[in-house]
User: Which sequence fits this backbone?
């Protein structure tokens, strides 16, 4: 089975009320497809973290979810500020989130580390001033 | 026992085929076809939302008749704590309990008393299993049912303790058998319930093999009978109540959690709010919680569809009633030994899965996506499904057809009329009608008639 199903979402920036809508929709679709619930859990957590990152740092972006018979690929692309030091950003607890976001309980510096933890493979393509694309694979 | 038995039913005569209910059902379990609503049993979780929203009162909650009392030699009433909140100016729970005896029950056992035992049990269970927290309350059967079909990863978080009404039924039966010497089958245990979900529970409980509840009466049926038996002369009352604030407080949202004496809890009520909390719990968005109390009805059990009083007024009344009561009045060591824990784990029922395996579901999901894209996206409900996407799913499942969509149907009529017009123009131009032309005409008219018949026009 080489074909693949694609679900696409737009994430709007600075709108916390809508953050999580996309991951919730994907979760329902994967359940309807009978995907293993452990896999669904990982997809949902990784995607939600990415969604929140786009809301906080990049004024939104787009998410593509590609489902094939052995893999779920999440591609989160934004045209935000980019990540100057990826290695530092990957450290647990490191955060550049502004104070008002932290006061909402976000920006604990666990976003990217959690995305890595819950995916089998993660790649970050980023350029300062141009944007960031995070690609995550979760194997079925 | 049927796994998907449910107690919310349709009164076909009252149903006008309007589409209010399909829009309110949180699990998209209702369809309107052929002018009547129908409930998909495997999707329904007995939340009772359709009962509240149907303007024609065509959704009804099944419960047992009061006449059932005559079918047992000895009967015990188990009043839900929400029953107490139905009366104005009630100062003493014993007024209600004595009235239950006066209306014909041989004995009473308060569910609120059993609730205090469950609270006690829950405190020690959570203490012993802190590393597995947060636990989700399993007292509301609708919550257990929705987790069973929609949130498989949360099944292990369900508190494996029987609900208060079950503990009450077990104790009441034991006490009645000891007192009367009658066999179990002669004793009728009657729960007076705020909701149809408990009716389902009594017939097909989850977590245990068989419930000890024999019959479930609706608060709204018992209420008017009870009123005439209530005496406010407190000197004439037999002291029967043993529950304190914790037990009686269980009828309000947050009441069960209050019995755990911890601040690390979350309490949500109303099925739509509950669904959001469950989805967030699934994504592990909360940390450090010990307990999650969820009630399908607004305000908790006082908001049940079988109650009489407005849930928020009932909540205020509960507060007034239990203000001067001791914190807890019922304790395990003073009650007969019964089983508190579940006997069996709840199993995931993937009722929303499209196909029988991943490959099939994958292909069907692709078809659902394509179809959803092609449908008008108005979610008007005229097809009888709550959303265009739900119609697409029904079509892919083979339970509906594209022409159920009124806009698709109009497009179909337009294309058919185009075909007919083309055919007749051709015939006119050639000046003759051959047997083939006639056949084509008949074919088109036949298609139209078939679709109109299917639509019941």
Assistant:
């Amino acid at each position: 089975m080489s074909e693949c199903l694609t679900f696409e979402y737009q994430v709007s920036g600075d709108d916390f009320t809508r953050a999580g809508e996309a991951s919730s929709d994907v979760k329902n679709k994967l359940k309807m497809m009978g995907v293993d619930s452990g896999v669904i859990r990982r997809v949902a957590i990784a995607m939600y973290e990415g969604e929140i990152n786009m809301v906080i740092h990049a004024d939104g972006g787009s998410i593509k979810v590609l489902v094939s018979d052995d893999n779920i690929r999440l591609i989160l692309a934004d045209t935000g500020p980019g990540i100057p030091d990826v290695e530092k950003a990957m450290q647990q607890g490191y955060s550049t989130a502004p104070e008002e976001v932290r006061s909402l309980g976000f920006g604990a510096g666990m976003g990217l580390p959690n995305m890595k933890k819950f995916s089998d493979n993660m790649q970050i393509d980023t350029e300062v001033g141009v944007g960031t694309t995070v690609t995550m694979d979760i194997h079925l | 026992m049927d796994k998907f038995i449910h107690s919310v039913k349709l009164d076909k005569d009252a149903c006008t085929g309007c589409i209010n209910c399909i829009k309110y059902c949180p699990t998209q379990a209702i369809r309107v076809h052929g002018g009547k609503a129908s409930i998909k049993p495997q999707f329904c979780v007995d939340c009772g939302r359709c009962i509240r929203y149907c303007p024609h009162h065509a959704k009804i909650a099944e419960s047992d008749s009061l006449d059932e009392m005559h079918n047992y030699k000895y009967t015990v009433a188990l009043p839900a704590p929400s029953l107490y909140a139905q009366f104005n100016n009630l100062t003493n729970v014993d007024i209600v309990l004595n009235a239950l005896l006066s209306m014909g029950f041989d004995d009473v056992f308060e569910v609120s008393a059993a609730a205090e035992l469950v609270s006690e049990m829950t405190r020690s269970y959570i203490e012993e299993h802190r590393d597995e927290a947060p636990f989700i309350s399993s007292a509301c059967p609708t919550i257990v049912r929705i987790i069973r079909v929609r949130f498989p990863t949360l099944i292990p978080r369900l508190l494996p303790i029987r609900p208060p009404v079950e503990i009450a039924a077990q104790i009441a039966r034991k006490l009645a058998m000891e007192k009367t010497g009658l066999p179990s089958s002669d004793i009728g245990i009657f729960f007076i319930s705020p909701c149809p979900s408990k009716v389902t529970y009594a017939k097909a409980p989850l977590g245990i093999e068989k419930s000890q509840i024999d019959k479930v009466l609706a608060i709204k049926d018992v209420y008017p009978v009870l009123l005439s038996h209530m005496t406010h002369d407190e000197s004439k009352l037999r002291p029967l109540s043993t529950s304190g604030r914790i037990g009686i407080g269980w009828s309000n949202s947050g009441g069960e959690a209050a019995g755990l004496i911890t601040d690390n809890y979350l309490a949500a009520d109303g099925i739509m709010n509950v669904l959001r909390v469950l989805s967030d719990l699934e994504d592990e968005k909360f940390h450090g919680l010990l307990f999650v109390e969820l009630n399908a009805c607004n305000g908790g059990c006082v908001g049940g569809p079988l109650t009489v009083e407005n849930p928020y007024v009932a909540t205020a009344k509960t507060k007034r009633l239990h203000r001067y009561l001791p914190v807890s009045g019922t304790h395990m060591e003073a009650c007969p030994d019964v089983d508190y824990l579940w006997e069996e784990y709840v199993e995931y029922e993937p009722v929303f899965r499209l196909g029988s395996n991943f490959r099939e579901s994958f292909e069907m999901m692709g078809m659902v996506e394509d179809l959803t894209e092609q449908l008008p996206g108005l979610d008007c409900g005229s097809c009888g499904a709550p959303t265009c996407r739900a119609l697409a799913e029904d079509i892919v499942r083979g339970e509906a057809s594209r022409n159920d969509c009124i806009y698709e149907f109009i497009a179909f009529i337009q294309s058919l009329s185009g075909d007919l017009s083309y055919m007749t123009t051709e015939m006119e131009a050639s000046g003759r009608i051959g047997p083939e032309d006639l056949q084509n005409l008949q074919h088109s008219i036949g298609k139209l008639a078939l679709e109109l018949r299917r639509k019941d026009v």
